[in-house]
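Worked Example 4.2. Read the sequence first, then its structure tokens.
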Amino acid sequence: MYFHRNIAELILADLKNFPVVALLGARQTGKSTLVKHILGQRGDCIYLDLERPSDLAKLEDAELFFTSQKDKLICIDEIQRRPELFPLLRSLTDEWNRNGAFLILGSASRDLLRQGTETLAGRIAYQKLTPFLWDEIKEVYPLEQYISKGGFPRSLITASDEISLRWRENFISTFLERDLLQWRGFATPAMRRLWTMLAHCNGQTADYSALSKSLGVSNVTVKNYIDLLEETFMLKTVSPYISNLRKRLVKSPKIYLNDSGLTTALLGLSNYESILGHPSFGSLWEQIVLSNLHGTFPDAEFYYYRTTNGAEIDFVMKIRNRIFAIECKAGLSPSLSTGNYNAIEDISPEKTYLVSPVNEGKGWIMKNNIELISLSEISKITRK
């Protein structure tokens, strides 16, 4: 079964307006499936997987091969394995002088973004594919399954909780023992321990000193490890929102893992029932809301707000100079705290949204420009 991905239209639009389009995202999020679906609707495409020896062999003389295919859309999967191709892409796109020449896919952002900025500036557009958004699969799967299994396609579509958990545990092991080998300066056991520790403090402010002490490594090493996990789309850091008010703010970033299914696997939680009774349930809901916000509003910036006096709001979303406050509550009868109201007063957002696992259409207008919405109604946030 193919699930429509909301990002597909953005990719098609970028192909009409840029010579090179880059689709980034973690492994196993469905980048190849999405692109093959897009290519299947066109007859002028060629697809290369740089993890396949036969496709690599075609690029022994990359310039000759690309030139022979110059009238087609050339798709290159796992482009980070051949970063030396970027200068050639620049030269060819300048020579061919047309949009939609290359569609490149990558599962690590650091080298791709650097190469794109340095080599393909003005020629490349970026899109990021997340694990499934709730809006993409809500007609087929219940929310409880989405929370426990996460949004990675192979995890979500499995027939049982046991098989899904096994897939996620294998994904974590493969990621640590194979996918990260292209970077030096990290130890697999330490990275696994750190990833597990971050799952236990998911959604909390980063305490590099405590993490480094527990791991027996330096603060710098912990920071480098976290940066690597973020660059490979395994987690997100959310910076504090700094307003012009003279408030004593909490200034450490908050760290969220990128997928609830990977989080529950690292926590050893096998099904939704075990999640409900776990202290992490509230932070898992925040994580799910944040992931869906990122996927729905790829151009937005996200922050959190917290003062030392207890004023706090989970997320501040800034998009085109519009500010929205977003609070996440995992219960079905949510309410805002005094600290939430104080934060709203400090931030003065255009509107505040309280996101809860209520059924679609069962939200309501609260007071003072505050609205309760379901996860599937996130897309309405920017509507006036």
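Now turn to a second chain, presented in exactly the same format:
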Amino acid sequence: MIEATLCFLLDGQPPTRILLGWKKRGFGKGKLNGFGGKVRPGETPVRTIVREVAEEAGVLVSPDTLRSAGSVTFVFPFEPAFDHHVHLFVTNDWDGEIRESAEMAPAWFPIDGIPFDRMWDDDRHWLPRVLAGKRIRAEFSFAEDNETVASASLEEF
């Protein structure tokens, strides 16, 4: 199972906008998502977020401004190499100008107008809870098409 991270940059308190990125290559290509990636050996999830947000969105986040939002495990029974355990984070604070990278094309979306139809199928189940300030622990298993959620468990803590 791949250990990974995902961070959502939010604008406003409470948030009125969310920064998502069009994935241009690799796993999830063509979908909107938060920013993050694989945890490298010896790296903490927080350090991974700092590195990945800088690489993918061109901005610096301080570990002190990251809020843990829990974790999600994604299981792909028909393609086990896709299995991920993802540490979730949100932040309202960063330094620098958001820019497009080789991997992601960032765009702002209103919190009440998130285009879930252009995201992973599971996002509509858990992301609204995270945006409401909840911490979650969830697991999603995908169908044979590796796109559709076949089963889910979700708890707030």
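Notes for the reader: Residues 2-156 form a domain with the Nucleoside Triphosphate Pyrophosphohydrolase fold (CATH 3.90.79.10). The helical segments are 45-57, 123-131.
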